[in-house]
Amino acid sequence: MKVTCTQENLAKGLSLVSHVASKNITLPILNNVLIRAEQGVIKLLTTNLEIGIICQVRGKVEQEGAFTVQAKTLSDYVNLLPKENIEMEVVDQNLKIKGKKSKTVMKGLESSEFPLIPEVEAKQKFDIPAETLRRALSNVAFAVAYDETRPEISGVYFNFEGGNLTAVATDSYRLAEKKVALAKPASGQHSVIVPIRTIQELVRILGDYDEPVSIVCNENQILFDLGETKLTSRVIEGQYPDYQQIIPKEYRTKVTVDTQELINTVKRASLFCKPGGNDIVLKFEKTAGQITVNTTNAQVGESEAVQEAAIEGDDNHIVFNYRYLLDGLQNLGSTSCVMEINSNLSPGLVKPAKEGDYLYIIMPIKQ
After folding, report:
1. Are 261 and 232 found together in one domain?
2. pTM
3. Which of 71, 272, 284, 353 might form a disulfide with 33, Cβ 3.0–4.6 angstroms?
């Protein structure tokens, strides 16, 4: 194998794929990036057996072939090179990397040992703008449960139906749902659960991409096609919880309030939470038209803040984990928000004041 490409192109490609390569003692090849040159194209491939990323790098192929070297070492080294053309050649089972003023040899492993990244059969294909997808995933991913005993909630639930993709995440204590429009309506209904590690990698890659993303999925795998970069992942087996039944259909108290003001109030109150606890008390007073936020810490002190709000229905109160409440408020994307409360024993609903495509549910803390 012998190829030439620019430092910028190679560095960008390696930054996209090297995160997936993991430190693996039992299977050292997984630490490596596969460099493959064929049919005039240079490709970089990494996998951890759950996720696989393929990135095409623009360059010149002088001799076809393939070889693998440690992904992180190569990425770190290329990032430190000047912006110039780089020549890479496999000689005597080593990768020679040559610049204008530098020569480096990296030991590697035969490409034949590298696991295949399976192709995903295009039974279902959906297109969506990259920034739309990135924001949707960022809006819900924080609520995923990191719980190996419940794999069905350790990822983001994708439901393709009609003209929408609905993304959902929960850890049983809170739930976030975001709906976004597909470029073309889906034929029928299709759903998968995508592992959180895959979501995190995808969000990172989407940050530098502004073209439509094609999503191809079947019962076992999902592919995110970003043109020159393709991310393949297994999907999580199992049935996602029927979360629709926990979304409150009615309320006793409806509160409309300025989102940023409430965020600031909650942050101040959080400074006085009890040691080892994150609970804050919210009281809703219709006649006074206000929310009162209380916290008490015997060692530090106590805090009470009052904020104006438009309140419909009954006076009410509820105790929330302030971190969970902030997560929802900070992802609303709305200057004002609505909170709907039934009782201090029932989940509360938070959503944008103008009917939108996002909702957030929080379980209360019982006292």
Report:
1. no
2. 0.93
3. 71
